[in-house]
Amino acid sequence: NAGIGGSDAGRIMAGEWRALWAEKTGRAKPEDLSNNLAVQMGSATENFNAYWYTKQTGRLVASRGERVQSVRHPHMIANLDGVTETSKGFPAYWDAKHVGRFDEATVLRYTPQMVHCCTILALDWWVLSVFIGNAKHEIVEQEVDPLYQATLIAREREFWGYVERDEEPPEAEVPVLAPKPQPRLREI
């Protein structure tokens, strides 16, 4: 496989090394998400999410759909939802989500993916633009926690070593929890 993507980052930080390793080495097929309603809904509403975010904030979303690879960490890759800026003008990675329920656990679930993409882009901030069902839109802006980022980079590097050596990783790595998110900025 070409490298570690954003959604892989969450699995690595959750300790799901063996299953992901089997996929990356071709021993197992990745889960087929073509009939997963939540995944397909998120994909179908991504363009509208970018439009709505810009309409509500006045901030554009650029670099949509670009495939990027880290220069510093070549095993790190991503298909970008986009790049924007925070309410205070900091450049930020932007990601669209469409969820049924939204709480702190939702932010924590996506933190590894967001930090992974920020690392590739050398950005210190990320923005989640979240549709909750069909009635709410929330924006979360978060600064990258450097300690968590260093842990993510080290764990991804270690995991990728198993892939490159074609060596099965240990049974289960201890999950690493994301730092507690800052309070939500606003609900739209």
In short, what is this structure?
A five-stranded mixed sheet has the order 3-4-5-6-7. Strands 1-2 form a two-stranded antiparallel ribbon.
What does this structure look like?
The protein is α+β, with helices and mostly antiparallel strands and 188 residues long. The chain has helices at residues 6-13, 17-24, 37-57, 104-121, 146-165; strands spanning 67-69, 77-79, 82-85, 91-99, 125-132, 136-143, 186-187. A five-stranded mixed beta sheet has the order 3-4-5-6-7. A two-stranded antiparallel sheet has the order 1-2. Helix 1 (6-13) packs across helix 4 and helix 4 (104-121) packs across helix 5 (146-165). The longest helix is centred in the first third of the chain and has 21 residues, at 37-57.
Q: N-to-C terminal Cα separation, in Å?
A: 39 Å
Strand order of the largest sheet: 3-4-5-6-7
Runs in which pLDDT lies below 50 for 5 or more consecutive residues are none
Large-scale geometry: globular
Please identify the oligomeric state.
single chain
Coarse structural class:
alpha+beta
Q: Element order, helices and strands?
A: HHHEEEEHEEHE
Give the DSSP E fraction (strand runs of 2 or more residues): 15-25%
Discrete helix count: 5
Number of strands: 7
Mean pLDDT: 92
Helical percentage: 25-40%
Sketch the major β-sheet: 5 strands, mixed
CA-atom Rg in angstroms: 16 Å
